[in-house]
Amino acid sequence: FGSSFTQVCCAGCAGMSNAVTESLGKGGLPVVKLETASGASCEICVYGGHVLSWRTADGTEQLMVSSIADFQKGKAIRGGIPLCWPQFNERGKYSRHGFARTSDFKVRRQRTQPDPSVTLELGATEETQAKYPFSFVYTLTVTLEDSKLTMNVHVVNQDDEPLDFTTALHTYFAVSDVSTARVLGLKGLQFESDGKTQTETEASVAITGFTDRIYYKTSEVKLVDGPRTVTIQKSESLPDAVVWNIGEERSVELKDLGQDEWRKYLCVEAGAIGDRVVVPPGSSWNGEQRFISTMKVQETISQEAISETAPEPINEEDDDAGGLSSQRLAEIEAAFEAKAKGGSIAIERAYKVMFTEEEKALYPSKDFEEDVKTRFKDKMAKEGEFSWPEAKLFLEEVG
């Protein structure tokens, strides 16, 4: 580092600006901090190339790090985003989860514009070649935006022989409670769990205990935690996705995980696991993941406003259906009346009327049509069409 603290900022900028700073963190380990002018931040430990914290501009911490994590050389840090390379878990002949996460990287490049970023580098040494007999350069570039975080991994084979590896970016997302978090975008995909291959049947994957799954040939995945959604985008070179949580019963096995902290994270990891990556001599490989965090705005009413308006209590007959308020149901009914011809509309158009864009993201049209066909077909007066009473009944039964 050269000094215990340095700062790089945009020359000539007044007031708040993007910044990259270096300091010593827990255990005396060097940390690089990225900050945007709007207040987003990301902290990366140079030891292990380990992302420790990612806060969006609204102040929300997106990652979980154990309260009793080991911040000392030779130990892997529990939480954040460990780099599993050149091996994921025990799937191969190298050490479990590889050595990148317990290696000393070097800071190679920093920038503040257009977005703050840092590039860290790990090269082959006598120590790494004793574990992994190849000459290589592994670089990690982390780039921060107000609501986005991008991680780019670049591996160059400097050896005379092809090098091979599996890898995962072992992201521990912070959640309010893992039992209420959901993972979207995996339905219909094959996954491996406990040595068995299965097909995911759920559009919204819930965590009900110890979970360790590798999903193959994935694309965009979403993590939903209450009003917060994190969209996980990744390059085709990272085709797989791991969903992992230790669960309550087995949490005691992790001596560096605080009490009940198993509830506070869900790992959703981009990786290249099913098929080993092979990089020819003199060639390179590149993998990238990007997180986009969004927050659904919740309408709130002050206690003063409530007391001023003093509305009459809503009776049970006028209460929510499938989680929808009576006002929302009235809006859908009005839309039905505007679109209906002969008192009913086609289910494709009904879908557009019944759900907002945010709801459609959580409940794709193909799942809606499947539910209609498998669970509601016999209750429709006219096949392939909905009347408002039928649509309301659908919302009450399916939600």
Describe the structure.
This protein folds into two domains: 20-295, Beta-galactosidase, Chain A, domain 5; 326-398, Recoverin, domain 1. The chain has 399 residues and is of the alpha+beta class. The strands form four sheets. The chain has a nine-stranded antiparallel sheet with strand order 7-8-9-10-22-19-18-13-16, with no helix packed on it. Strands 6, 11, 12, 14, 15, 17, 20 and 21 form an eight-stranded antiparallel sheet that branches. The longest helix has 14 residues, at 326-339. 34% of the residues are buried. Helices cover 17% and strands 35% of the residues. Residues 1-6, 9-14 and 299-322 have low confidence and may be disordered. Helix 4 (326-339) packs antiparallel against helix 5. The protein has helices at 126-131, 247-250, 303-309, 326-339, 347-354, 357-362, 365-376, 388-398, and strands spanning 6-9, 19-24, 30-35, 41-45, 50-55, 83-84, 106-111, 117-123, 136-144, 148-157, 163-169, 172-174, 182-184, 190-193, 196-199, 204-206, 211-215, 221-225, 228-234, 240-245, 265-279, 284-295, 344-346, 385-387. It comes from Noctiluca scintillans (Sea sparkle). Keywords: Isomerase.
Short structural summary:
By secondary structure, the protein is an alpha+beta fold.
Annotate the secondary structure layout.
Blueprint: E1 6-9, E2 19-24, E3 30-35, E4 41-45, E5 50-55, E6 83-84, E7 106-111, E8 117-123, H1 126-131, E9 136-144, E10 148-157, E11 163-169, E12 172-174, E13 182-184, E14 190-193, E15 196-199, E16 204-206, E17 211-215, E18 221-225, E19 228-234, E20 240-245, H2 247-250, E21 265-279, E22 284-295, H3 303-309, H4 326-339, E23 344-346, H5 347-354, H6 357-362, H7 365-376, E24 385-387, H8 388-398
